[in-house]
Amino acid sequence: MHPTRRLSALYSLACIGCLSATWTQPVAAQSKEPRFVDHSLMIASEYPCNWPTHPFPRFQLIPQTRIGPASSYNTDAVYVDGNTGTQLDVPPHSVARPDLNREKSGPLGLATTDKIEAWQFGGEACLVDARDLLDKAPKGVSPLIGPEYLERFEQEYRPLRFGDVVLFRSDYSDRYYRPFPEGNRFINDVVDRLAPGYPDPNPETMEWLGSRGIKACGTDSASMGPMPDLAEPTHYAGLRYGMIWTEGATQLGELPATGAFYCFLGPKHEGGPYGEGRAFSIIGGELPKKLIEACRDRRAIDLSPTMTPRFPMTNPAARTGQHRQVYLKIDFLYSEYLDMFHHGHMMDSMAGTHLVPPSFALPPSDDAVGEAPEVRSWLKEYESKFGPRGTSTMTAESVPIEWTCGNARVIDVRSLIGSTDRGRWPTSPEVTPAFLQKYEQDHGAIRPGDVVILHTSVIDRYLKMQPDPQGNVGTGLWTDAFTRKAEGWPSIGPEGIDYLHSKGVRCVGTDAPDLGGLDPKSSLMTYWALGSRQMVGVEYLCNVGNIPKSGSYFLFAALKIRDCHGGPGRAIVLHD
After folding, report:
1. DSSP codes joined into one string, 523-572
2. What mean pLDDT is reported for the chain?
3. How far apart are CA 352 and CA 114, in angstroms?
4. Where would you tag: which of 90, 225, 263, 306 has the fewest CB atoms within 10 A of its CB?
């Protein structure tokens, strides 16, 4: 995966992931209403979602708590490395840091996943059809997509240019990404020379794209690295131009040859030379054109803090033994040429910017779950006001991406800070229906499909604090409130959620650690209200104050992890 003169052929091919691709009917035949297409592979242990050669680790979903006597929530931890499912490659995957002074050194050796600007993750999908190459090679060898495929695309459609996302479609993942043992055909059988390799561009094709100013591309193959020995040359040929790409896309046949908006979003890991993520496209209506133009003009804002062990990414809890899984970077294989470790991450499924699906706080069935007596009394009170709590099995992979995307409606709730009685701390100021109605009087009605984002500035404030002697930043993000050194962050109560539901809102975000706040009872009721109304949350945002008041479109996507009760992801805004 990483370029190094000491890497074996198998190791140099170790790059999984994806960027999305497209094809089918001409743009004129599309619907006038936008439609989302998910191009991401399912992440689950019985699928071939990891690079399979030793010592690359396996994906793990680890249940932590389940709703019952000891917990009011369903929570999970995950172990995931950047070669899981649909993934992104960035220049340091092959370009060495400038300080190493090596043949492949350059400034782009510093352009890790957390440094790529938000506009580069999106653009106009341009599908290069390579289906005629599928399985047309000897066992263990990749059929090569040469520059002639690009020239054929330009002759049929238009010249490729900056702002395009060039996507190579062979339908490989559609055909071969299956549960084991059938799933061995996806990568394992190719590595073992039992089956033909996946189609991929050769180095000349990547040079051709780089010379045209293309900054993003992707493939529906398992890797952008042709088997058995062109993985590194192909990677370096494109990444040295500052390209990014995704590997392992799927459902590319859902898209037109041009005109769709494509996007890849994944957790913002510090220092990552590659990263797991989610790829999707939008087709139909005027929305794709608007988003494509925003990316071409670099009108984008990143709303996700960088995930690092030096910043508190997950809730440490007010009481001993109740903390969520801390965020850990785990090194497992050293690349001498890049002077860099391959690494994965162990983390709570709600680390950093993340999804709150309905199943987080709702039990999967009406069977007795045996909550603690205090929680049962809260539930009785809640149901007397808001109706049945209900049930849900909607985990992260079942939440449609369109639920977490929409016109951004930023509601400034900072005026609530300082409004609580210090004697009642730890507690949080509450965003009430009256507060939301006052916002509407001043700024216009909240509309169906809007993504409502509460602007508290809490994450931004702690990110700007000076690090402690150990270099850790923001250590008081939760603990200042837990220990009564600071008021809790503004939160929204169940009445506020109910009001937003009546306005047709599906997704609520915040730039605070969470939507529920410090009071356990009110917080649980907030999540009950979200889940029972089939609403979702996006928590732990930043830079919300930089979102323009109008003409802003919010995009968030969580990892497609099956049966996961949270979802690490990334949020951006594209704007006029």
Report:
1. HHHHHHHHHHTT-EEEES---GGGS-SSSEEEEEEE--BTT-SSEEEEEE
2. 93
3. 13
4. 306
Q: What is the pLDDT of residues 343-373, one digit of tens each?
A: 999 999 999 999 999 999 999 998 878 899 9
Instruction: Using the Cα atoms of residue 541, residue 93, residue 179 and residue 278 in order, give the sign of their dihedral.
Output: positive
| 535's tokens | 């609403």
| Cis peptide bond prior to 426, omega within 30° of 0 | yes
The residues with which 229 forms a beta bridge, in sequence order, are none
State if pTM tops 0.70.
Answer: yes
Q: What are the structure tokens assigned to 272, written together? A: 């990552």
Q: Tokens for 98?
A: 């400038």
DSSP assignment letter at 511: S
Intrachain domains 9-301 and 354-575 with the same fold:
yes
Give the domain ranges of the chain: 9-301, 354-575
Predicted confidence (pLDDT) at residue 7 exceeds the cutoff of 80: no
Domain with residues 354-575, CATH architecture: 3-Layer(bba) Sandwich (3.50)
Q: Could you tell me if 540 and 524 are in contact, meaning their C-beta atoms sit under 8 angstroms apart? A: no
Which of the four CATH numbers 1.10.1040.10, 1.10.340.30, 3.50.30.50, 3.90.79.10 does domain 9-301 have? 3.50.30.50
Q: Which residues of 240-259 are buried (b: 16+ CB within 10 A; e: fewer)?
A: bbbbbbbbbbbbbbbbbbbb
SS3 366: coil
C-alpha separations of 237 from 110, 340, 440 in Å = 17, 20, 52
CA-based torsion, 314, 410, 572, 114: positive or negative: negative
